[in-house]
Design goal:
With 409 residues, this protein is α/β, with parallel strands linked by helices. 41% of the residues lie in helices and 17% in strands. It contains 18 helices and 13 strands. It binds 2-carboxyarabinitol-1,5-diphosphate and magnesium ion.
Length: 409
């Protein structure tokens, strides 16, 4: 029997169904309904033709239903019975609701824009072990964003040079200093040597400034190797590990989270734009962010609006809200604004995104004409001024590093 997967009278119970919202453009000579039906079938129990093995019972219990269909808006909503999904398994979630459907010839474009998840499913995941509130408490940063620095150049420094630059950042007002996304364990900068050097710099700066500091080590690799690297960081007294979550994959992120090492997990999203950037095809950043919160990252890059990377205000605000809202007991994730930031952009950034985030500076700090230490001071001064509601121009009159940065960038 050739079952239909469209039921516009259906009102799904949000406690029992996963609801996916899709942008859809059918292929040439295919109706919107045909394409919608195919997507619901392929992403639940069906295939391209009627099959003798698919019983009415299976269809009733596990068939997805298109319950909202608006060709004029190119939007459909599909309700998926929650039992289609293995609890606690993000790869399976994606293989189901964001898998084959992108390949079918009946569609021209398809984008998974949002997912609403029932509590029974959300609660099958651990979420962040530490989360936004504890991170902010750790750094004792009241009423201001945390300030991060990315060591630049992204590749090429020795571990000792990396540590020296990190030390200048820490000493001059930066809370968190991080590896770049493509620095892992190359011959010019081996992971274990970097951990030892940078933690030495971190501890020295903590002692001298009496502030909490943290170096973020990029552990991205094959999963067993990542576990080894995370344990190495833990053993040597580190606080934060970074995973390139899209290139390493959700399974790897879930595995690291489940190790419960007591380390903050910093999620870098390199490569996400291959999936998220096309407005008509792929998966939205909002969906990836929700899945990463389930998986249990503690802080996640979500965009700046004002910086060098693509990502508009509405998108970034929606993503940050999904990371920080109440969510059936899962801890909130701290958003990270990073990419092309420099002191001049800080007031606008805080005006748009608020103070509940980490603001990261790379080129906008090491590009300061007087070097890293002055760049760090300028970044901190810009954040302090913006948080006190003082214009940068006014603040720069008594803060020479900021003055130079404003003249330069
Ligand atoms: C920023 C950065 C980050 C991007 C990632 C870079 O450096 O280190 O990887 O911010 O983008 O290499 O570009 P700059 P997103 O401050 O020098 O730009 O946070 O949007 O995922
Ligand atoms: Mg980077």
């Amino acid at each position: 029997m050739n079952y239909k997967y469209i039921n516009l009278k259906f009102k799904p119970n949000p406690l029992k169904f996963v609801i996916g919202t899709f942008y859809l453009e059918p292929a040439k000579n295919i109706t919107f309904e045909q394409a919608a039906n195919e997507i619901a079938a392929e992403s639940s129990i069906g295939t391209w033709t009627a099959i003798t093995t698919l019983t009415k019972k299976i269809k009733n219990e596990l068939g997805a239903s298109v319950f909202y269909l608006k060709p004029q808006e190119n939007i459909i909503k599909i309700a998926y019975p929650v039992n289609l999904f293995e609890r606690g398994n993000i790869p399976q979630f994606l293989s189901n609701s964001a898998g084959n459907i992108f390949s079918v010839k009946l569609i021209k474009n398809l984008k998974l824009l949002d997912v609403q998840l029932p509590p029974i499913y959300i609660k099958s995941f651990p979420g962040p072990a530490i989360g936004a509130n504890e991170i902010k408490k750790l750094f004792k940063a009241k009423n201001r964003p945390l300030i991060g620095a990315i060591i630049k150049p992204k590749l090429g420094l020795t571990p000792d040079k990396q540590a020296e630059i990190a030390y200048y950042c820490f000493k001059n007002g930066i809370d968190i200093v991080k590896d770049d996304e493509n620095l892992t364990n190359q011959n010019f900068n081996q992971f274990e040597k970097r951990v030892i050097s940078c933690l030495r710099a971190q501890k020295k700066a903590e002692k001298e400034t009496k502030e909490i500091k943290a170096y973020v080590f990029n552990i991205t690799a094959e999963t067993e190797e990542m576990i080894k690297r995370a344990k190495f960081v833990k053993k040597h007294g580190g606080k934060i590990i970074m995973i390139d979550v899209i290139t390493a994959g959700f399974s790897a992120v879930q595995t690291i989270r489940k190790k419960n090492l007591g380390l903050i997990i910093h999620a870098h999203r390199a490569m996400h734009s291959a999936i998220t950037r096309n407005p008509k095809h792929g998966i939205s950043m909002l969906v990836l962010a929700k899945l990463l919160r389930l998986a249990g990252v503690d802080q996640l890059h979500t965009g700046t609006v004002v910086g060098k990377m693509e990502g508009g205000k509405k998108e970034v605000l929606n993503t940050n809200k999904a990371l920080t809202c109440k969510w059936f007991g899962l801890k909130p994730v701290l958003p990270i604004a990073s990419g092309g930031l420099h002191p001049k952009l800080v007031p606008e950034l805080i005006k748009i995104l608020g103070k509940n985030l980490i603001i990261n500076f790379g080129g906008g700090l090491h590009g300061h004409p007087h070097g890293t230490a002055c760049g760090a001071r300028a970044a901190r001064q810009a954040v302090d001024a913006a948080c006190q509601g003082i214009s940068l121009k006014k603040y720069a009159k008594t803060h020479p590093e900021l003055k130079v940065a404003l003249d330069h960038f």
